[in-house]
Sequence to fold (930 residues):
Amino acid sequence: MNAPLDPSTHAVRPDAVALARASLLESCDLGEPQLDRALGALLRPGVDWGDLYFSEHSGESWVLEDGIVKTASHDRGRGMSARAVSGDKSGFAYSDELDPFTLLQAASTAGAIARSGGRGQLRMRRERASRALYAPGDPGAGFSDPAKVELLHILDREARAADSRVRQVIANLSVARKRVLVCSSDGRIAADDRPLVRLGVTVLLEDKGEVRHGVSGWGGRLPLAELFSEESGRGHAREAVRQAAVNLDAQPAPAGEEIVVLGPGWPGVLLHEAVGHGLEGDFNRKEVSAFAGRIGEKVASGQCTVVDDGSLPGRRGSLEMDDEGTPTGRTVLIENGILAGYMQDRLNAGLMGARPTGNGRRESYACLPMPRMTNTFMMPGPHDPEEIIRSVKKGVYAKNFGGGQVDITSGKFVFSASEAYRIENGKLGAPLRDATLIGDGPTVLTRVSMVGSDLALDPGIGVCGKEGQSVPVGVGMPTVRVDGITVGGTA
Amino acid sequence: MSPDDLSERVADALAHARKGGASQAAASASNDSGLTLRVRMRSVETLESHQGHSLGVTVYLGRRQGSASTSDLSSQAVRGTVDKALSLARFAAEDEFAGLADADRMATEFPELDLHHPWDLDAEQAMELALECEAAALDADPRISNSEGAGVDSGESSHAYGNSHGFLRSGRSSSHSLSCAVLSEQDGRMESDYEFSAARAPEELAPAKEVGAKAAQYTLRRLGARKIKSTRAPVAFAPRVARSLMGHFCAAVSGRALYNRASFLLDSLGKPVFADCVNLSELPHVPRGMASRAYDAEGVATVNREVVGGGMLNGYFLGSYSARKLGMGTTGNAGGAHNLVLQSTGETLEELLAEMGEGLVVTELMGQGANIVTGDYSRGASGYWVKDGAPAHAVHEITIAGNLKDMFRNIRAIGADMDRRGGIHTGSILIDNLSIAGA
Fold:
């Protein structure tokens, strides 16, 4: 799936804060005096700074199974939290009650973290205008409930028509919206109204008693009407069937080190695991990352430039501002092979003498923010993707991946191929069964010998977990040749 | 919010659903509160106070089903949530299998499970405990070089569940934990590992010093790790990772995977799926058990049973919906399994290693490489190599692979080193002939 990769000029949307105030604060009798009182309670002697975070979300999901839409569910919630920061310490309290008394109580509880030191000052509040990376309002607008049901039936019918061996189709749609407002002791008040839509189709194919599954999904911070068309829906249904059919023919994957060519798009999960997490500010401030203290060192081949960019319009990992009110942007992590920068939130940036990069994210009001990725991808290189595959005498071509994981301290990381093929004498051969690939984050990119020109981002369904918090993210990569990574098959 | 408050909200939701025309309805509500304190490098890092609640409702209009949930438990919000569920149900299709579990399956006896042991813990005490825990790790060895911190977590929860059969129950529970993760360094290479203790009652937590000392011990054990050559060998899964194998088993014999035919253990009831030495029980009423429940998420009574006996599969994990789809009865597992206990074959860890002779002990697994549809298994691993029945050196950056069907049949022994910290109790599991991919 292609998407614009240049940060475009964004329209200014000054009404975001006003709308969020009306919806989250004014309806709960929370006005300027209440905010000031709460921030005052937060800024006890010893507290350097703090913030109040308000959010409300609503979402619905629809599931089709056995050819019928069996159930639909709706979720709604709101709450707020108060955070006080004193040096490297954070005090935090939250509640899903929104009223002046609870707010003050949460602020006092959070402020109790301070013992000595800091002297934060309450500054005049100023609204920060936000940019428009996504359309405001209900992302499901234009789709009635029966239209959502019909959408899932289109996926189901197309998948069943594509192959007579299809035994089951599970299709799902989720449409969500989250409004957040951050009010911090340095006077900043900022808001963001975030749509999030995700569609998916899973098919099970059965042939001679053997069952295989295939999955295809797509999404982003775009209106459903833009993401879904009959054509795109049918395409994803056929893609899920194609993957399941490929898996029916798959042979055991090899066990051991191989030359691996990674296809464009999803395989960018390699970057997310191998270098992304290791370059988050908190791990580096604490020096628990294998990348700690290595800025300026060579950690990848000269062909590799890796960035994190939360300001791409409509992408799943994008945010107009992070959950501390810092605008998102493009952070260069690795430039021509040299480690260039870390992703930061306010706390870790402050302690490291760096600038916040708009990566301070939290799953919900019930969580403390921390440095997180947004959309992480490698810039395109000079090689034609066909040429890259042709260059390999014997190896593996990995086209689709499931999840991954990393041990940031040792740098070891894994990611699991869900669609892969043998490469023999420069040509794609037999499909291979699921296999996990394992490598060493700080050195794997030094083995990248060719970078393709075909940068693609994933289709918009990624979720990243860290310390129990899940957030939507994006990954991307052009076709890349890695000269040696361990493939965990059985053959 | 007390259990009685929650019961009231649930009853209100059910009454509103009936008024709105629901033929059946179920609602559940919960309230959680707690404290989390983390220290790092001998000083406080975060102090978090938690307070949250939610209510969810499922309504049926005949065979049509809709659900909704809210974090706002005001009467107005609860009724709005019920209305939303009703409106969604109108757009769902008729599903002949939809509905509550049968009324005669509702639990009528409620054994005392002893799950509620609040901890009167203030921030000061939590800090002392966490500092003591981390200090025990940091002071254990000069090669312990850094820390990810130690933490104390204490939480209480109230819950209520009711449905239109007239079932309405509420209760309280608590859960507490203590954890620590530290780094070791040697020849410029860093490793980290962790230890934790978790229990319903604070007095059952392991001593802070012990948790810290173990974290240090595990972290030191990883120093000098090497990648090994690809090979086939017996692999012992340490208890903290062995439970994931039982998790894959549960996923494969759970209702939804079975009726979708998305399981490598289809039609395996009454057949040998494990080696003869494997016996697995489900014990839902263990006092203070981490997954103890008198009734499942549909109000159905839970029962003690032998899920696997002598390697034979005696039962699935079904809720009423999947049971109807499969033409069977619910097993009281809507919402999952309740305390699984894998019986040891008696060997201590030392005896297990002696029996293995040469092979791999896995102490950490990475990634999600278990395919429940096919049983294909391939995960990143680290641990240590065993030679002549004794630990030889640490191993990392390898994968282990096989097919779960074969792996379950190839279990040779289950150690006596039982880990009872979670809902799955198991010792080390020794499995023959796995594929190891390395250099």
